[in-house]
Write a structure and sequence with these properties.
Helix content: over 70%
Largest sheet: none
Low-confidence stretches: 1-24
Order of helices and strands: HHHHHHHHH
Structural class: mainly alpha
Length: about 160
């Protein structure tokens, strides 16, 4: 009789171990976090990296660039020309138009080109502005993020956890 009781416990223990391994795949690791410092692209490819970077930018009241970049990434996935036209106008009103709520820092020529492009939008009508914004983030926001308390504290806490292990 005792073996009948032990067997289900062992099976349950195995299931918990497998669940724990799966849960760990969804957790943030020190190695992943360290890789964010290799490039902005690496940071943005990580769902935790992107979320941490966005929080950092929000804390500095400068999240319009990442919001625009993400909006452009979503915009490029639109297949319907009606939806594309509607969304292009919204993107223009929110990020491109002078004095817009989340106006991004782009030159006059690019702003005017987009104004024309939005009249007959394609999936590439925001590409130039997106490249400019990416460059701004790469040269300005990203290095500040790597020096920030948010990033350093996260690295330190993960390093501490890793040594306890």
């Amino acid at each position: 009789m005792p073996s009948l009781i032990v067997e289900p416990l062992n099976t349950q223990h195995f299931i918990m171990d497998r669940d724990d391994r799966n849960r760990n795949k969804n957790m943030l690791s020190l190695e992943d976090t360290q890789q964010w410092s290799q490039s902005l692209e690496r940071l943005l490819e990580s769902k935790y990296g992107l979320a941490t970077f966005r929080n950092f930018l929000k804390s500095e009241y400068s999240d319009e660039n990442i919001e625009f970049w993400l909006t452009c990434e979503d915009y490029k996935k639109i297949k319907s020309s009606f939806r594309m036209s509607s969304r292009a106008k919204k993107v223009y009103e929110q990020f491109i138009k002078a004095e817009s709520p989340k106006e991004i820092n782009i030159d006059y020529h690019t702003r005017e080109q987009i104004k024309r492009n939005v009249k007959t939008p394609t999936m590439h009508c925001f590409d130039d502005a997106q490249k400019i914004v990416y460059g701004l983030m790469e040269r300005d926001s990203y290095p500040r993020f790597l020096r920030s308390d948010i990033y350093r504290t996260l690295l330190e806490s993960l390093a501490t956890e890793a040594t306890k292990g």
